[in-house]
Specification:
Blueprint (H helix, E strand, L loop, with lengths): L1 H5 L8 E4 L2 E7 L9 E7 L8 E3 L3 E8 L1 E6 L2 E6 L3 E4 L5 E5 L4 E8 L4 H7 L1 E2 L14 H13 L2 E3 L2
Antiparallel strand pairs: 1-2, 1-11, 2-3, 3-10, 4-12, 5-8, 5-10, 6-7, 6-9
């Protein structure tokens, strides 16, 4: 058990932000031998990612607060606190926050995708940065698109 604890990721229990969102890394792929990652995410409406498709991982969202409409393939799911939404790899999807804010527990299988979020965010310091901003700039979106390709994600127009 001691050896496993020494392998804990630098992301474990960190909080990172990007405009309109906050990520709390609960469990990383480094801790699960690559099996999964769990991240608590808070997001404001208007800051959702565009329609995209994962080639490497499935996503499961457990809605913790707020309301979110998911568009998964041709399906539309209106989710609220307590609901669970599965987004399989290879199926285009996106979502829209329909309440004033929402939070989800994101489970990614297999793990590794948490490193994408680490690359597009910055460390959160309650003293210096608000956890939730307003909207994502065009420059930030362009950086996210470039980074996503390295993680097997394609954006769909």
């Amino acid at each position: 058990m001691e050896t496993i604890m020494k392998a804990v990721s630098a992301l474990k229990d960190t909080v990172r932000i990007y405009p309109g969102g906050k990520f709390f890394f609960r469990l990383t792929s480094e801790e699960t031998n690559g099996a999964l990652a769990i991240i608590d995410v808070e997001i404001l409406p208007g800051n959702e990612p565009p329609r995209h498709c994962h080639t490497r991982e499935d996503e499961t969202n457990i809605i913790r607060s707020g309301e979110i409409t998911y568009f998964i393939g041709d399906d539309i799911i209106n989710a609220k606190a307590g609901d669970i939404v599965f987004m399989p790899r290879g199926v285009p999807h996106h979502f829209k926050v329909t309440s004033s804010r929402a939070s989800v527990r994101l489970i990614v299988t297999p793990g590794g995708f948490e490193n994408f979020f680490a690359k597009i965010t910055k460390p959160y310091s309650e003293e210096s940065v608000r956890p939730i901003a307003t909207t994502i700039s065009k420059e930030k979106i362009e950086m996210i698109v470039r980074t996503a390709a390295a993680f097997g994600i394609s954006y769909i127009n």
